[in-house]
Amino acid sequence: MTIVDRFTVKVNWDAAASVWYVEETDVPGLVVEDESFDAIVEKIKALAPELLELNKHLLRSHNTGSLPIHVMAEQLLEIPRNHH
């Protein structure tokens, strides 16, 4: 695996289950879901440091303690058209 300066977590909305879930990430083992976007972000913030600690080989040695994580959200909105 490549050593990175920043990690990415892509979360997506599952309308059928009414939950946000981690669709794609380079944080090994990060599998979470929640009913709200804010709650899934809190879970990511809680779990990512632990998971990355278990995978120290992915971190740059000069890391100063902060873990930059780019959270990207995607949600398909189906908006009814106005019929005049």
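the 2nd protein, sequnce then structure:
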Amino acid sequence: MFGRMVGSQRNGDRISPYRTRKRAMKDKLLNWINLALMANLFFVVFSFGWFAIALLGRSFKLPLGFDLWYSLWKPLFMPAIGILMAGALISGISSWVAKMLQQRSSTS
């Protein structure tokens, strides 16, 4: 009777502690994934900055690490960009699905 209620529950059922723990675990997992994707984003931006500076230095015959950057392109930077794109797609699709499910539950 005095349990916490969810707005979508119309029949007055109490939320079980298992459900709230499950939701908290899901939120923690999503927060960690978002943190990892943000770190990946900053890594990709940093690597692009390094590329731009190294390419500019190469045009002025200054050794600013272009050869090192190019040697790390396939094993390091390409997967980071792929993870960033996949994370953006998955995040967008999951938010779209959540919004559709929320609209469906609010209309029924």
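The mean pLDDT is 86. DSSP finds three helices and no strands in the chain.
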